[in-house]
Amino acid sequence: MNLERLENILRDEPKFRLKQAKQALFINLISDWEQATNFPLELRQRLNQECPLEIETKITKSQDENSIKALIYLDDGLSVETVLLNHLDGRNTVCVSSQVGCSLGCVFCATGKMGFKRNLTRTEIVSQVLFFARYIKSKGLKVNNIVFMGMGEPFLNYENVMGAIEVLNDKDGLNIGARHISISTVGIINGIKKLAQEKLQLNLALSLHAPNDDLRSKIIPYNRANSIKNLIKDVNCYLEQTGRRLMIEYLMIDDFNDSREQALELAKLLKQIDPPLYFVNLIAYNPTDEFKPSPAKRIKDFKLALNKQGIEATERHRFGQDIEAACGQLAGKL
Ligand code: SF4
Q1: 99, 153, 222: which to mutate for ligand 1, most atoms within 8 A of CB?
Q2: CB atoms within 10 A of CB 277
Q3: 280 in contact with ligand 1, CB cutoff 6 A
Q4: What tens digit of pLDDT does each residue of 202-216 get?
């Protein structure tokens, strides 16, 4: 599937054709142009030849079937992973990748260990959601949430991520409300500022994972380029401009960032966020050679310590650990 090619082919057709094509693609979720029966036969044949709709993938399901990971094969032989999360409340979230690999090398992250291969195009990002939209259509289900928390740092592929969001949000596209689209970042210089200027009311998640620069730089090397102090400044401007709530993501890593003292240090740090439009999401870490997850009791105590300081904190449900589809586990292989 290639949106740019589709737009080029339809440039010589009457204007309404593009709208019809989008409806066929994103509302009827066709996977073959033959199904676009309102198109002349010749055009359908041309589109099937020059702009085929197949999205080549390989999928794995978790044992509880609440998460499904898809490896999507790209035209240049590379591949990228995307995950569908079925929540208990009926929401279906697609966790989308924005890059093949990542240049930032966060120590806890399997994608970081791959190094950077390339940015994904707008179409390649949209295709991840489209694949799962088609996949669950037969069960009468719809994709209703998108999180940019897959492979890559979305703010390092800003234009294509925003281009994809435009298609995902478009009423003639997948029509997913901006409030149901979240972008997660480690805090790229200017990325948060740029997002604050966007007209869409997107959600922002900040991967903080540590209460001070020394600790954070040990797991997120990029922190040396943009310290927590600078991040808080950017966040304060963002909150003032947008009035949106910020999600602070905090991976709970055994004996690294999970003590009561560190919870208090985190609370003190977060109190510098003004206006205080934020909440903390505590994420159980998925074990790697380097780190282990915090025991459940320590996560509860950490949460309680934050709550006692007046900080709202929740524990994120753990998805897909058995298929390496959980946070930080995506590495472009099945
Ligand atoms: S956590 Fe995000 S920014 Fe860090 S290496 Fe992994 S994909 Fe890149």
Answers
A1: 153
A2: 16
A3: no
A4: 999 999 999 999 999
